[in-house]
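As a warm-up, study this chain.
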Amino acid sequence: MTNWTRKALLLTVSAAVAAGTPTAVGTPVAHGRPAGPATPPIGWGPCAPIAGTPVLDGQQCGTLRVPLDYRVPGGRTVDVAVARLRTDRPEARRGTLVVIPGGPGSSGIQRLAQKGEALRAATEGAYDLVSLDPRGVGRSTRAGCGIPAADRHLVTLRSWPAADGSITENVERARRTAHACARDGGPELRSFTTRNEVRDIDRLRAALGERKVSVWGSSYGSYVGAVYAQEHPRRVDRLVLDSTGDPDPARVAYGWLSNMAPGAADRFPDFAAWAADPARDAEGLRLARHTEGVEPLFLALARELDRAPRESDVPGVPLTGIRLRQALQLALYSDSAFAPLARLIRSAQDPGARPALPRELAGALPDEDAALTMAVVCNDVRWPGPASGYAGRVAADRARHPLTGGMPVNITPCAFWKYDEEPRPTRITDEGPSNVLMIQSLRDPATPLAGAVKMRAALGDRARMVTVGQGGHGMYLGNGNACGDRVVSDFLVTGERPARDAHCPDRAASDRVS
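Now compare it with the structure written out below.
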């Protein structure tokens, strides 16, 4: 690809209007009467403390009341917690940017606290920043299923096969979890869907008095953003899709999970190169003399822990081979997690040590969090049923992708899920304004490039995609790639995009786009 420059990408106002793209640099978005149904304004006030994340100065919180069931607009309501951070440069303001969290299960209020200052600086004060805790998350209306504690650990919510590859226990756990959610989840749990999150976002837009909003969605949030733009194309100003999965309606959620096996295989060499680097000697974290030796070492240790789990620093929660594999999955999201993973491996190799488990693996999730992790993905699309050949797919995937041990294609509670109505996932198409910028790692362990390419193809000329030549999940303001950050920030501030799909090298190389 040829290099492009800022000047070459500037669009004239007339060309932008003709293409349906945002208008010229600095032009504010119209603020007439909001499109859609009337929504009461939000009563903003101080934000309560967020566990583990300081609330930003100036961050405000409020509650948006929305229909439990949008088919019954005058019926019961649920609460959606929202937050905003106003621009610190009112003269530069051009509109509102909605930050959509990932997951499903991540808090937008927490994400705004984590990213708000960096985002406000990167966008030069062009936006008021807003986000929400989707239904079932954080301070929004929640619901549980009464799932037993033993079934609420991350390594049991995710269907890791037994050490010998058997899925018998997974089948029974999936069955009882689905039945518990059908029995105790209630209408609130059944309302936890992408479609309802999109509707809630549009209610938030209306409550803010905006005819249009810009959107930055990351991971699962990028799918939510794409669906929002599909359902409400004229209410989106600029849309950033960061780390995106396959939008095929037949494979939404199910396909995302199965894609994690090749995603981990693509990303692991980055960890292996780091762990074999002689620079690790000084830290005591070098795992092998050569990159090729790291994967056999890891797999051998996992098998040893399958046979003889190690007592960890958490009473009653041993380090097993499955927990080690799950720790790897978590660590592949960011290079910053490589050192903690290497320390875990080193301590597991030391007979006299008591390995310290990552926080995510140290205990059972709260019942409401566990229920939510399944509710959205199960509610959104019908998964293959229990008799569709899971055991065979697990066996084949374990052989092809040993790092993930068959988990990504294994049975989940979704195979037994009960539906009030048939799910109808939104089909993403190329119909709509050309105002989408995608940013995607070449080696993403959770939403691999192959899935993002399918989203790019579905959007057609509505989108441009910038790939980033480094591994990790969540690229914008997330993995330290100055080139990728600059491209996204320029788009949000000026509306400029690459003339065609482009590439940013890794952080050690040139910061120019090619």
